[in-house]
Model the fold of this input.
Amino acid sequence: MRELKDYVFITLGLISYSVAWAVFLLPYQITTGGTTGIGAIIYYATGFPIQWSYFIINAILMTFAIKILGPKFSIKTTYAIFMLTALLEFFQWLVKNPDGTFPQLLGPGQDTMACLIGSIMCGIGLGVTFTCNGSTGGTDIIAAIIHKYKDVALGRMVMLCDCLIISSCYVVFHDWRRVIFGFVTLFVMGYVIDYIVNGARQSVQFLIFSKEYDKIADRITRETHRGVTVLDGVGWYSQNHVKVLVVLAYKRQAIDIFRLVKDIDPHAFISQSSVIGVYGEGFDKLKVK
Done:
């Protein structure tokens, strides 16, 4: 069920990404990084469909990725590539005029607004896809292959590839304004992706002091499926022995924990703090060289 849920959300993310291209970016001739950006530049220059350029480039890259990185890397990426190709085809067909041109739904001269809306929707789509351990391929594959053999940060490699792709659109338009729009799109997409990915994984730590610690611990374990550690403590002023519950949970689970503690002991003392990262069972995997 968890895998099925991942594929459903990856599909929804790709729908957002495809709509952004068909409705906002392509009609206003805005590009960005990645193989989709390469496909857009080819489309602006020759009229060759963006989805087929995207598919062909990724098919070549995936051939190398399977051999070098192994099949596990490629399962969800392959699904995303095929699905995004189909969705780009569908939504372009849906919005195109009978003469094959794209309508500018925001009106002529609204390049800036189209750039912002399109990049936000692309960022949301990619953020949801990445959160579900998916990938749309492209520069991610190039970065992963180089990272395997060279000690280069993945993010830096992806950024370098994207900057080269966006800068190359000057060859088509001979207009630095288009290049600037491309970098704005890249920046907004990156910000939205970080916000979604980090927001989904942000964790909190609770310290709970209560005489009903056993009931609270039991309900937290049973209802939120989070681990609970019980520590022995001493109140220095009162010199009374107390039990302290330590709980690490996702931020989205905080309200549920507060509610169940209040149901059991309205007078409990609770401290909540944000933590930068939590690694281990039930959270992110620990990845250290």
Q: What stands out?
A: The mean pLDDT is 84. The chain is about 60% helix and 10% strand. Residues 203 and 250 are 4 Å apart (CA to CA). The longest strand covers residues 241-250.
